[in-house]
Every structure is written in C-alpha cells, then in structure tokens.
Write a structure and sequence with these properties.
- The chain is 71% helix and 0% strand.
- Helix 1 crosses helix 2.
- The protein is an all-alpha fold.
- The chain has helices spanning 3-22, 38-58, 65-79, 84-97.
Length: 98
C-alpha cells in the first residue's frame, strides 16, 4: 500500500471512529446548538479533529499528545456545546488509559 493510500485509509477510518464517538455528545435540543443540524455539527467536529491531527503529524509532532488533546478540546468547546455527561465520561476513560 502506498503512503498516500495508507494516509487516505487512516483518515477515513479516523473520521468514522470520531463520528461514532461524538454522536452522543452533541445536543441539538438546547443551548448554542439548538435548532442546528446534528450531521453538520458532527462533520464540523470530526473534520476539525482530523485536520488538527494531520497538521500535527505533518509538522513533526512538535507538541506532546496531551497538549494537543487539551487545546483541541478547548477550541471545540468554545464553538460547540457538548453534553457535559459525555465529556466527563470520555475524560474519565482517557485518564484510566493514560
């Protein structure tokens, strides 16, 4: 498999994974997201994460993973309101793993 095919495969799989992970965290019934389309919000979130990770790889991973995760989380929280319950569950799982 060529590098470009491998990168394309990784990107597609990563997008699919993130859509599944973020589905339950998006609440379009209240707050900033009220009345917005869930599919549009999910695409915004997952392509933002994928873009940040791609940029991080292409630039030699200059920052530790925890710094990237923290900053991406802050940026996305400022623009989209996630379900607080889902964020707490996700952060708890990350702390146990790392």
């Amino acid at each position: 498999m060529s590098a470009s095919k491998g990168a394309s495969y990784f990107r597609r799989q990563f997008l699919e994974f993130l859509v599944e992970e973020c589905k339950d965290a998006v609440d379009v019934t209240k707050g900033k997201n009220h009345g917005l389309n869930e599919g549009v919000i999910l695409q915004f979130i997952v392509t933002s994460y994928v873009g940040i990770v791609e940029w991080w790889f292409k630039n030699g991973m200059l920052y530790p993973p925890h710094v990237m995760a923290e900053q991406a989380g802050i940026l996305l929280e400022e623009s989209i309101v996630f379900s607080k319950k889902k964020i707490l569950r996700h952060n708890s799982r990350k702390q146990k793993m790392g």
